[in-house]
Write a structure and sequence with these properties.
Length: about 750
């Protein structure tokens, strides 16, 4: 700990060196005409600007060294190259026209490259695009990314699933630090709001080399909004109405940057009533959420630091049966009351040929669950027969019972991540680093899902990216140790060595191949080791096993991508062998009339992949035809199927994008999502039927009082189909997923 504090102290001392500038122009490769409002960005320094009316730009106050510069504008291929600073001569950059969407820098991988330059395949999606497709929550929005699904409890609670793996096997990062919010629970959601979020990145496969335990199945990396560009300020307000739930969400934000200082602030509010199906409203799927985000940063020539804070408070109803039909937005019993605080800081020191990055995080998760079981009164199925006075008395009784939480847990997590990027040596880029975590879980309620315990992680890793003329290779190794101390109980140590190697090469002029081999691990969580009691949210009596061992996996990934000016096609395949896979299985007995489920281990394997096609024909560059298919199969060693494996699905989208004199970024789309029957189920699961969901949307950006007004109208499940997703936790009750929803969104730059 003292070493970490010393590093922080030195990180706060700017290194004084001469300031450097780079300047240049961006031109069309064919016409040689200047490109106005093109974006120039240095991802390692997180500094950027845009070209003026002459296509020229200047970036000042830069450190010495070698840094990647990325240039992009709609309608052109993204340009990327490494420049040496100081650089006295002007840069002259030519961009080639293309109907393919602009590429973005991938932040979740260590070397911050464009996806086309990455050895590891990473999916990225902008939050604005996910919301334009009608997503009500962030957990729902990520299911539009190939290979990603969500285990849902109604509308408000969703857990990410990456290629069939979920819970503690998928690590979530926000604000550059790992999010810890009791994610072991089946009905514990993300606890994040999409306001103030720029994009989502998904690493599909073991990322233990980069992130340690709990990244065995992959990583969901949430990128916060960027600060304003240097010497600019931006204010905006956004509001969305959702017809199905009579719900709304709104947020307002402001950010400003000077030469060295920058800050941002954003607040949001969300409320929804019970979601509607073709036959009924699903009682107690209502929820309320308040979210606040802020950030402050400082940047000098050789030093950069930023501090961010996010507070998210949500009150989430837990649906059980179909009861009173109402549009009330206040959850009834049972419900969760969750407050999540995320404090994060990231500091960078830039030397002449190397750099040091220090990321620190503190997450304070306060989880309360209120249940209707203390005094035992009538069920709510007959609420329609009560008069107003009875309803009022019943509400008062709820308020009295809700004064004390049945379940109350506080999870306090401190984590750190220190990376040193060595000077480039020939063809080698190399990063070495250490990561760690200290986590304390404390119970305050009368019920206890997991005991009071302290967890400590420590990891060391090294990774190199090697550039050859016709290929790029990435290789790395890592050691981790996790120590778990249960109060008045046992102490456990889990150790693991892991490695990864991958290669990217161009087979033909436009065909890129990626091949990756990686191992990963996951230490058992506290629920798996210590559970002994009824888990009300799942109606199970769960029994853990303190003798459980590490899950250890080895995954092979292969990806082929063909990209021309008007056609894109990709095929991704994977095979994932997981030794000592941990899962719950009923043993056929009952305790207090509740079925007993025990945590057991068995070797397992998962395999499948994704196929995608994107066609935008010339000269109809405004027309886009997209198709994606994804499949995953999970089996135990004895050939029985694993639980909670998503069904195969196929999506087909027709999209139109236009520009006109009176509006920018006009678009419309129509999408058919086909989900196939899931018959490959575990012994204690039910099969799921196939279904088709139709959605559509239209939107654009207009000028109002010389500022941008963005309007979006979208509709999901337009045929009001009655269906149940295989990963819905309401499936056993036969409760449908959400019916038709029409949403209207307005966003205005003040």
């Amino acid at each position: 700990m003292k070493k970490i504090l010393y590093l922080l102290f030195f990180a706060s001392i700017p290194v004084i060196q001469a300031q450097n500038n780079i300047h240049g122009s961006i031109l069309d490769n064919e016409t040689q005409e200047p490109l106005v409002f093109a974006n120039i960005y240095l991802p390692q320094l997180e500094k950027g600007t845009t070209t003026d009316e002459h296509g020229q730009f200047t970036l000042s106050n830069l450190p010495s060294g070698n840094y990647k510069i990325v240039c992009s504008i709609i309608g052109y291929e993204t340009f990327s190259k490494t420049v040496s600073i100081p650089k006295t001569e002007a840069l002259e950059i030519f961009l080639s026209s293309s109907a393919i969407e602009m590429e973005e820098i991938i932040i979740s991988t260590p070397f911050h490259k464009l996806q086309s330059e990455n050895v590891m395949k990473v999916e990225q999606a902008k939050i604005s695009d996910l919301k334009a497709q009608g997503a009500v929550t962030l957990a729902e929005g990520i299911t539009n990314i190939a290979g990603v699904e969500s285990i849902s409890t109604g509308l408000s609670i969703g857990k990410p699933v990456i290629r069939g793996l979920s819970s503690n096997r998928v690590l979530v990062y926000t604000q550059g630090v790992r999010l810890e919010n009791q994610q072991f629970g089946d009905e514990h959601g993300l606890g994040l709001n999409d306001s103030g979020v720029e994009s989502v990145e998904v690493i599909k496969g073991p990322a233990s080399l980069l992130y340690g335990s709990d990244a065995l199945g992959g990583v969901l990396y949430i990128n916060p909004e960027k600060f304003a560009q240097q010497n600019t300020n931006v204010a905006d307000v956004e509001a969305t109405y959702f017809g199905n739930t009579s719900g709304y969400s709104g947020n307002i934000g402001y950010k400003e940057s000077s030469d060295k200082l920058k800050f941002l602030i954003r607040g949001s509010l969300t409320e929804h009533s019970d979601y509607n199906t073709a036959d009924y409203r699903v009682t107690n799927t209502r929820f309320k959420e308040q979210d606040f985000k802020s950030g402050i940063g400082y940047q000098s020539t050789q030093f950069k630091t930023e501090f961010r804070y996010n507070m998210n408070h949500s009150k989430l109803g837990i649906p059980e049966t179909i009861g009173e039909q109402t549009k009330n937005k206040t959850p009834e019993l049972p419900y969760q009351d969750i407050t999540n605080h995320v404090f994060s800081s990231k500091s960078n020191i830039y030397f002449d040929t190397s750099s040091l990055e220090i990321s620190l995080g503190y997450i304070y998760n306060d989880r309360k669950e209120f249940e209707e079981h203390h005094h035992g009164h009538d069920d709510h199925d007959d609420h329609d027969d009560h008069d107003d006075h009875d309803d009022h008395d019943d509400h008062d009784e709820h308020e009295e019972e809700a004064l004390e939480a049945a379940l109350h847990m506080k999870l306090k997590t401190f984590n750190y991540d220190v990376k040193y990027q060595l000077p480039e040596y020939g063809k080698f880029e190399t990063i070495v680093g250490t990561q760690g975590m200290n986590q304390v879980n404390t119970n305050y309620g009368e019920e206890q899902l997991i005991p009071d315990a302290t967890t400590n992680d420590f990891g060391l890793f090294a990774m190199s990216h090697i550039h050859f003329e016709n290929a790029d290779i990435q290789i790395g190794a890592r050691f981790d140790n996790r120590n778990i101390q249960v109060l008045n109980g046992f102490t456990k140590d889990f150790k693991s060595f892991n490695g990864a190697i991958g290669v990217k090469t161009t087979l033909l002029k436009r065909l890129t191949a990626r091949l990756n081999f990686a191992s990963g691990f996951r230490a058992p969580n506290l629920a798996e080791l210590t559970s002994y009691g009824t888990h009300e949210g799942t109606n199970r009596f769960e029994i853990g096993d303190e003798n459980l061992t590490n899950e250890q996996n080895f995954q092979t990934d292969v990806a082929l991508e063909f990209k021309s000016e008007h056609v894109e096609f990709y095929v991704n395949g994977f095979y994932n062998l997981v030794n000592d896979y941990i899962f719950l299985q009923p043993d056929g007995t009952f305790i207090n009339d509740t079925p007993v489920y025990s945590y057991i281990q068995e070797d397992a394997n998962l395999y499948g992949g994704e196929i995608g096609f994107h066609f935008h024909p010339h000269p109809l560059d405004w027309l886009h035809v997209e198709s994606n298919f994804e499949t995953v199969t999970g089996k135990q060693k004895n050939e029985t199927y694993l639980p909670l494996i998503p069904a195969n699905s196929l999506s087909n989208t027709l999209r139109v994008e236009l520009d006109s004199k009176w509006a920018d970024k006009l678009y419309s789309f129509i999408k058919l999502q086909s989900t196939f029957a899931q018959n490959n189920v575990s012994k204690y699961e039910m099969v799921s039927d196939s279904y088709n969901l139709l959605s559509a949307g239209i939107g654009g950006t207009f000028q109002l009082f010389k500022n941008d007004l963005s309007v979006a109208v979208s509709g999901s499940n337009l045929t009001n189909k009655k269906y149940i997703n295989h990963l819905s936790r309401l499936k056993q009750e036969g409760i449908y997923n959400m019916g038709r929803n029409i949403s209207i969104s307005l966003s205005y730059n003040l």
